[in-house]
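To whoever is on call:

I kicked off a structure prediction for a single chain this morning and the downstream step that reads the tokens threw a length-mismatch warning. I double-checked the sequence; it's 88 residues and nothing unusual in it as far as I can see. Pasting both halves so you can look.
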Amino acid sequence: MIAFAAPERGHVVDRLVRTQLKKWPQRPPGVVPSPKQPGTWLKGRPGDPQDSSQPFLKIPGSNRLRTIPDGLWLHFSPTAEDPYVDIG
């Protein structure tokens, strides 16, 4: 038999996870500054649960099947000549 959590419990757990993730640093845990990887890190998740404009991942060209990860960091290129964003 499969047991499902009550919706109220799910919201409580979601709040607990968000609270813990908000304590994480601006760069991913364990990543130390390195001259081999210059650029800027930006913590994209978790965001305000009431805000609908949060970053998410999806298949390119698709408007369905997207996911909003619990933790998401973006690493931006240090130069305009070679612009990129890595997802961490």
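Update from on-call: the warning came from a stale cache, not from the record. Cleared it. Sanity check on the structure: Strands lie at 40-45, 72-76, 85-87.
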